[in-house]
Amino acid sequence: SQATRSQCWGTNAYGELGAGFADTLPVSTPINVPTLYAIGSVVAGYSHSCGLAQGVALCWGANVFGVLGVGSIGGVALQPTPVQAGGVAFVQLVSGGYHNCGLTAAGEAWCWGWNAEGQTGIGSVGSPVILPQRVQDGGLRFASLAAGESHTCGLTAAGVAYCWGGNARGELGSDPGVIGAQRPTPTMVPGVPALSLIDGGTLHSCALATTGEAWCWGDRTSGQTGDGVVDGAITSPHLVSGTMSWAHLATAGSTTCAVEAGTLDAWCWGRGDQGSLGNGAFPAHSALPVLAGSLLLQGPALTTPRVDVGPASGAPGSIVCATTTLGTVLCWGPGGRGQLGDGTLTPRRAVAAPVLVGPPTE
Description:
The chain is mainly β. It contains no helices and 26 strands. The strands form 7 sheets. Strands 3-4-5-6 form a 4-stranded antiparallel sheet, with no helix packed on it. It has a 4-stranded antiparallel sheet with strand order 7-8-9-10, with no helix packed on it. Strands 11-12-13-14 form a 4-stranded antiparallel sheet, with no helix packed on it. A hairpin with a 3-residue loop joins strand 11 and strand 12. It is globular and about 45 Å long.
């Protein structure tokens, strides 16, 4: 069988595409990530990327705050470099702005990188964590993890959410009295039903309930919590407006997107001035979900339709990409640095409707 091949595109100033070189000129179509390992999944932070290969975590790009997990700070890695995890095997990786976390099969969370706000969950706030350390979970076991810019969240098998790290805008969801109190260990998110998925934006978090409802909390200055309000912050979970039932959800920056169950339409809310809402327009923001497009195309369902949202390196707004039922990838949002993957590098370019990611460059 053919080995798994991971592909990246966009900004490559620090080698964050993992292709063995760094260049100020972005890459506008997918290129293969060369490695001895068969990387099955890839996550990306602000200036680095990480992948998972049969339990081994590998990272590449800029080693800011020790985010590459190699025991030092500074420098770059131009190709996937194994994280020095002491033999710990991971089943999931997540990446925040400058920190990463890995989940083991036993439900343990391990984090490394930037820890100025306690986002590594090791019980202290301050110095960067240059090698993976286990989250001080108090006996909790997680089924999945998520990371925002400077906070991290985990879901237990029972669907209970815990978050830790920075709380500048209430993104931890557990501090209704005071915004800004950092939490260096997992703290339960109250007031939500059993959850199946959680994700973190720059200063907000959203989660998907097992019943199909979407809940968000934290910064809503761009309407990214989807409750119809563009103002301030909400420090406890609120339901996203509308009657839709959701099958998938993702958030980053100040934008959130979700796939509607049944129709497989993609909807987005939050910041939209760079086309991140995908609805053909460039509004400053939308506090209610707007239709971005249908992922239900003719043909066999080769993959489960989903959306992923990421911060746009060097540009405002968020880049949104989605897989379709044909296995193709569509992206929308800012694209002046090749983030759209469609072969274009027009300065300050942004598109407000999905475009097809081009074929990989061999």
